[in-house]
Design goal:
Largest sheet: 7 strands, parallel
Strand order of the largest sheet: 3-2-1-4-5-6-9
Distance between the termini: 47 Å
Order of helices and strands: EHEHEHEHEHEEHEHE
Shape: globular
Helix content: 40-55%
Number of strands: 9
């Protein structure tokens, strides 16, 4: 997989999965654009990439704000002249009873997770379409689009919307040679992996909880130009957890 000199915008790249993706693509000699709302986290990712002698820039961005998304993409184009890959990773949840959840809280989650994904995709695609090679977009959803626990309504709705948005954008952008796919991660542990219990791992057919490395491999696969026949798809990365029966046989 050749990502050398590819320009990759990663939202929410200051921590967790996004942080790992930024370091991995930089290690693969890509030009990484760190889009992160939290300045300290964004600068930390930038520092680590530069310590590894990678190429990266950090633009503080709140993807729920259209003007900041537009500015992010304009700055990226001005600096690099193109965008090859966009990974829409930024997002968060509010775990609160639907009886108590305010409309302001609902809007905050939807505007970041779902609307932010749309805004970033649209503005990046405007630049990608200028490139004869097109581009690739990967949206990060969640297995919570398919299964739920109490008090997760706004997060689940946003992630379900991202999956639907993915195949709709794939249809709309196809004439511009822009592929759009989606990943629905299950339990991906980003810190203190050794602190997990055996029962945590055994909830999965793969007998382990997921790691950031699993997401990196999936994103590399979907953004590889050689895999251009994969389009409009949702790839579930959960160790089989969503396929496991919840009762024990007699």
């Amino acid at each position: 997989m050749d990502f050398e000199k590819k320009v990759i915008v990663i939202t929410g790249a200051g921590s967790g999965i996004g942080h790992g993706l930024a370091l991995a693509y930089a290690d693969a000699k890509a030009y990484v654009v760190i889009a992160e709302k939290e300045t300290e986290q964004g600068e930390d990712t930038l520092k680590k990439i530069r310590m590894q002698h990678g190429n990266a820039v950090f633009f503080r961005t709140d993807i729920s704000k259209p003007e900041e998304v537009e500015e992010l993409m304009k700055k990226t184009e001005a600096l690099f002249g193109k965008i090859d890959i966009l990974i829409n990773n930024a997002g968060f949840g509010i775990w609160k009873s639907p009886y108590e959840l305010t409309l302001e809280e609902w809007d905050e989650v939807i505007n970041t997770n779902l609307r932010g994904t749309f805004l970033c995709s649209r503005e990046a695609a405007k630049i990608m379409r200028k490139n004869n090679q097109g581009g690739t977009i990967v949206n990060i959803a969640s297995t919570r689009a398919f299964m739920s626990e109490p008090d997760s309504e706004c997060y689940a709705a946003s992630k379900g919307g991202i999956i639907s948005l993915t195949h709709a954008l794939a249809a709309s952008f196809s004439s511009d040679r822009i592929r759009v796919n989606c990943i629905s991660p299950g339990w991906i542990r980003t810190t203190e992996y050794d602190a997990l219990r055996e029962t945590d791992h055994l909830q999965h057919f793969s007998n382990r909880v997921g790691k950031v490395e699993d997401m990196i491999k999936a994103c590399f696969y979907l953004t590889d130009p050689e895999n251009d026949f994969i389009n409009g798809q949702n790839l579930t990365i959960d160790g089989g957890m969503t396929k496991k029966m919840i009762y024990e046989p007699d």
